[in-house]
C-alpha cells in the first residue's frame, strides 16, 4: 500500500468548495402533519440544508440531535422518541436526499403526535456557490496532505453534497481513488462513513483521515 | 485591512472570501440607505463598503435625503411594519412618494447592482433599469400592518431579490427570492475590539458607575420596541435581591424622531429607583459602548420587537451572558440555555438576572459558548460573504 500512495494519478483531484446561502422556502409547519406536507413539497436542496448542512458547526443545533427536523420536533412538539428516530435517519451511500426524504416521511407518518407548536418550523432551501480552492492532489500522499488542512467546505462539497444531491453516484474521493489507483479497499472504507450524524465538521475530517490511515497502514 | 480578520476567522475562511469575490471582478455595487450615522445599518455599511472595494468590487454608498415630515412617516412605516398596528393615511403615502421622486433624481444608477436598505428608500426601484436591485430588509416584517405592507409590497415586487435577517421574517405573499442573511458585527471596530480593564474602569467611573458592584447593561435606542420600561421593571425586581447597578445607554438617530419622547418616558419610569443610569450619548460613542458591555456582569436586550438586535452579538462577542427578548432575530443569536437566555416578560428577565449573578461558573460557561457562536455566525466577514453570494445568485453567476 505504501507504493500505491506514491503513484501518480493520470487525472489529478481538483478540490472545489461551496457555501450554501439560505433562501426562504415559503413554507412553515406547526404540526407533524404540516411538517410532512412541507417535506413532501420542498426541493432537494431544502432536504440537504435541513439534514446534511448541520455537519457545519456554524449551523447551530444541539450536539445530541443531528438535523433541523429532529431539533424542532424535540423543542416544539416535545416528542423525544420521534425526534431521535428522525435524528438518526440513514444518510450513508448510496442514499440521496430523495431517499432520505422518503425515510423521514415514513417515520413521521407513523406518528400520532397532535401537538401544535408554539413556534413553527421554517423551511429553508439553498443554492450552492462553488469555487475552486486551487488545491490539487496527484497522488494518495498528496491527497492525504490536502485533506488534513483544506477547508471543510471542500470536504463536505466532495464527500457529501455532490453525492446526496445526485450529481455523483458515490462520494468524489472514493470515485477518484477507485478510478485512478484501483484502490477499492480505501474507496469502500470512505464510502461507509455516514455524514448525516455529524454536527461538527472537524469530527468528519478526523474520521475520514482515520479510515484512510487504517487502510494504508494495515 | 481585510487580512487582519485572518487571526479571528482563520486563513481558510478568509481565502474563501477572496475566491468568491474573484467571481465578482468588474461588477459595480451601490448601497442606498437613509442615515449616515446611528443604528446598525449605517454601522455595517461604514465597514462593508471599504472592504468590498478592497476586494476589488467597485462599491459606493449613497444616503437619501428627507425632511422631518418624511422621516416621521418612515418611522411610522417602521413601527407599523414591526408592530402590526398603524394609523397612516393617503397624505403619508404621498409624502413618502414625493421624497422617492426627489431622491431618484439624485441617486446615481450606473451600477450593476443596487442594494436598497430598509423601507425608507425602497421606492427608488421605480427607476429600475438594467441593474439588478436587491432589497435588504433589516426589520421584522412577519406581522406587518396590512395597509403599509401592501403599499410597500408594490415596490418590493419590482426587486430581483430581497434579503431578510431571519427565516421568521420570510413572506409567502411575494414571489421575489428571499435570501436569509443575518447581520453581523465588526470584531475590529472600536466598539468591539479588546480594551484594557483600566479604560473600562475609567469610563465606568466617569459616569458614576461603581466598578466594584454588579452592573447590568442594555445598549439600545430609546425606542418602545426595545422595552426600556421593561428593563427598569426587571431591574427593580433584581434590586430586591442584589445591590446591582443599571446602565441603559442609547443614542439618537437622525431617522428616529420618537427617541426623545421615549427617553422622557423612561426617565419617569426610573424615578425613585436607585442606581439607574440612563445615558443619552452621541451615536459615535463606540468606546463607551464597548466599556459598558465589557464592564457588565450581565447584558440585557429585552426587546419586544426586534429586527435582529446586533447589540446581542456585540455583548456575546465580549464573552457576556445575555438575557434577550424572545423576538425577531434574537433567538438566532441566543440558543436558550446554551448561549444565553430568552425571556418574554420583565419577571422572567429578573429571574435570569438573579440566576446569572448568583452563579459565576454558569455565567462564564455561557459567555464562552456565546463568543464561539458569534465567531461562527455573526461576524462581518460572514455577512460580507453572504452579500457576495446573494449578488452572484441574483446575477445568475453562482457556479
UniProtKB/TrEMBL annotation, chain A:
This is Uncharacterized protein. It comes from Metallosphaera cuprina (strain Ar-4). It comes from the Archaea. InterPro entries: DUF5752. It holds the Pfam family DUF5752.
TrEMBL record, chain B:
InterPro entries: Glyco_trans_1 (IPR001296), Trehalose_Metab_GTase (IPR052078), TreT_GT1 (IPR049438). It comes from Metallosphaera cuprina (strain Ar-4). Homodimer. It holds the Pfam family TreT_GT1. The keyword Glycosyltransferase applies. The lineage of its organism: Archaea, Thermoproteota, Thermoprotei, Sulfolobales, Sulfolobaceae. Signal peptide: none annotated. One of its GO terms (biological process) is glucose metabolic process. One of its GO terms (molecular function) is glycosyltransferase activity. Residues 201-372 form the Glycosyl transferase family domain. Keywords: Carbohydrate metabolism, Glucose metabolism, Glycosyltransferase, Transferase. Belongs to the glycosyltransferase group 1 family. Glycosyltransferase 4 subfamily. This is Glycosyl transferase, group 1. It comes from the Archaea. Residues 31-169 form the Trehalose synthase N-terminal domain.
